[in-house]
Write a structure and sequence with these properties.
The protein has four helices and eleven strands, in the order ββββαβββββαββαα. By secondary structure, the protein is an alpha+beta fold. The strands form three sheets. A five-stranded antiparallel sheet has the order 3-4-9-6-7. It has a four-stranded antiparallel sheet with strand order 2-1-5-8. It has a two-stranded antiparallel ribbon with strand order 10-11. The longest helix is centred in the C-terminal third of the chain and has 23 residues, at about 120-140. It is elongated, with a radius of gyration of 22 Å.
Length: about 180
């Protein structure tokens, strides 16, 4: 049906490594795999096996759960995207956790109800946009004047910022890497 691999941490594992909850849900108990060091597992490759046919409107969704926390969606694979390397963003564990270990859940779900096939990529884009916006704000703030309760900036401020941004990127290729996460 499917297999998983933790890059630099495991050999490929098939469905037999998971506990089947019901027809469409499986759970991997991380304590049997890495003990309490589950948070060190930052990526997981999931892939459909050749003999498994997933309906075109379904996806194999991946979730993570820290001890005592709810499951959090990480991403999914489909027939059109039969494999993926997903970032595992572990939620904070509950301090009074009755759940002794972290888990990875896999389930067959309707593709239409899933938020995204790769949650971590969307979060990286969001962080990138916030960093660029912060850079623009800081640049504009250095030229601001105050008119009553309003900040006033020169009309060509965006052009000046963008030109400076481009010049820095040309001079120093590492500059743009500081915006990527």
């Amino acid at each position: 049906m499917f297999g998983v691999l933790f890059p630099n941490r495991s050999f490929p594992m098939d469905l037999s490594s998971f506990t089947q909850i019901d027809t469409f849900h499986w759970v991997l108990d991380m304590s049997t795999f890495v003990g309490e060091a589950y948070h060190q597992i930052g990526e997981m490759c999931i892939f459909l096996l050749n003999n498994f046919t997933l309906p075109p409107d379904k996806a194999l969704a991946v979730y993570v759960q820290s001890p005592g926390s709810p499951f959090v969606f990480c991403g999914a694979v489909t027939l059109q995207r039969p494999s993926a390397v997903l970032s595992l963003i572990w939620p904070e564990p509950a301090s009074d956790s009755a759940t002794p270990s972290a888990k990875i859940g896999v389930s067959v779900e309707d593709l239409a109800v899933l938020p995204s096939l790769d949650v971590a990529a969307e979060k990286k884009i969001e962080r990138l946009a916030l960093k660029v916006g912060e850079n623009l704000f800081n640049f504009m703030q250095s030229f601001c004047g105050v008119d009553g309760s309003k900040l006033v900036v020169p009309m060509d401020i965006l052009d000046r910022w963008f030109k400076k941004f481009q010049e820095k990127a040309k001079r120093d290729p590492e500059y743009l890497k500081g915006f990527a996460l």
